[in-house]
Amino acid sequence: KRIVVLVSGSGTNLQALIDEIEAVGSAAYGAEIVAVGADRSGIAGLERAERVGLPTFVCRVQDHPTREEWDRALAEAVAAYEPDLVISAGFMKIVGKEFLARFGGRTVNTHPALLPSFPGAHGVRDALAYGAKVTGCTVHFVDDGVDTGPIIAQGVIEVRDEDHEDGGAALHERIKEVERKLLVEVVGRLARHGYRIEGRKVSIP
Ligand code: GRF
Questions:
Q1: Is 111 tagged catalytic?
Q2: What's CA 181's distance to the chain center, in Å?
Q3: Which atom belonging to ligand 1 lies closest to the Cα atom of 15?
Q4: Is the beta carbon of 55 within 6 A of some atom in ligand 1?
Q5: Which pTM was predicted?
Q6: pLDDT one-digit tens code per residue, 100-159
Q7: Is 176 in the pocket of ligand 1 (CB under 6 A)?
Q8: Which residue from 121, 120, 68 is spatially nearest to 99, judged by alpha carbons?
């Protein structure tokens, strides 16, 4: 299976996918990364891709007159690589109708909270502020909402008292350790076994 990974930042989730495929081989894993895309340039996520010779592209909102035209441009940039799956790994933009018309039902996102709790761009901080005792990460299919698509897998992390002292940095790192493993495991399973989405239920044979 062909996967395109979308990033916006450090790209450690992308790196986990690169490392796993390097370790086990794309045949055994069931997928190969054919391109990495970003909504901004100059980020570590793109450097990680370039370091291993993966094709990259940048699609910036500010380069397009409207949000819809950005969404269409992103969809076209992704479509050029003919992916079977699109993995949003720390991609911080909400995709729109055009993108979903082409890649809905085969775009997977990872979120650093236990959805439906704490959706959006500040899931770690929001869980802390709420006083949650456990939080975690969610790997889910993307639908037309924000972090609302069918859940594939979740991982749980205990919140510690000291997590309230650094704005969530340590907690987010602990979440990301689980998140990277979960994403690698889920993407491999989807690629090797296929899947069915019925309403909110995802089944992987
Ligand atoms: C991940 O925790 C992701 O869930 C969140 O931002 C983080 C991205 O990390 N949206 P990285 O860019 O993969 O290191």
A1: yes
A2: 13
A3: 13
A4: no
A5: 0.97
A6: 999 999 999 999 999 999 999 999 999 999 999 999 999 999 999 999 999 999 999 999
A7: yes
A8: 68
